[in-house]
């Protein structure tokens, strides 16, 4: 694969903003993201600067990007670290030390090239490498109608936990939780 997968850098906030806006224009955005293009577009530059800086360093979150040979950011995934003693994450407070993958996106012209796999591998390896109490699992949620994403996650090794949450804004639809457990040593 000719793509470079790496963590975003704080000074790259404009590129991070552009990639997020591209993701929110994707036809799957209404079932993949909890934000609209209009909401994201209305946020000031300082929001994007702080968000990118926070995702570039630290042990609470990290954003990874896949950079194409021509320099285009072709895909992304973000990791949020959730600890039982911390703030509640998506849906509920963490019962175990865990990571939560969010903001998964690959540009249409770059799909089918293994980018989701490469991004997830980097995100999972980073999650297992954190100091402090070891993370027990990496989780994500997928809309019940997002079969393409679900198939990718299963191929990578994520398995359904049986937990579901109502979709924000549409309580008749469900978000399905998937996880990968840390291997016991």
TrEMBL record:
The keyword Electron transport does not apply. SUPFAM superfamilies: Acyl-CoA N-acyltransferases (Nat). Residues 3-181 form the N-acetyltransferase domain. Coiled coil: none annotated. One of its GO terms (molecular function) is acyltransferase activity. It is an enzyme of class 2 (transferase). Pfam families: Acetyltransf_1. The keyword Zinc does not apply. Its EC number is 2.3.1.-. Keywords: Acyltransferase, Transferase. This is GNAT family N-acetyltransferase. The lineage of its organism: Bacteria, Bacillati, Actinomycetota, Actinomycetes, Kitasatosporales.
């Amino acid at each position: 694969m000719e793509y470079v997968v790496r963590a975003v850098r704080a000074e790259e906030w404009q590129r991070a903003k552009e990639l997020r806006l591209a993701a929110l224009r994707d036809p799957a955005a209404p079932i993949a993201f909890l934000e609209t293009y209009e909401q994201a577009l209305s946020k000031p530059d300082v929001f994007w600067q702080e968000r990118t800086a926070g995702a570039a360093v630290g042990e609470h979150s990290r954003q990874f990007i896949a950079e194409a040979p021509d320099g285009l950011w072709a895909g992304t995934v973000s990791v949020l670290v959730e600890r039982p003693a911390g703030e509640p994450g998506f849906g509920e407070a963490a019962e175990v030390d865990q990571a939560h993958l969010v903001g998964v996106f690959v540009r249409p012209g770059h799909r089918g090239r293994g980018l989701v796999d490469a991004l997830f591998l980097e995100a999972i390896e980073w999650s297992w490498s954190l100091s402090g109490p070891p993370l027990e699992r990496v989780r994500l949620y997928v809309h019940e109608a997002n079969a393409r994403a679900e198939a990718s996650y299963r191929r990578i090794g994520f398995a359904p936990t049986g937990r579901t949450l109502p979709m924000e804004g549409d309580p008749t639809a469900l978000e399905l939780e998937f996880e990968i457990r840390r291997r016991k040593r």
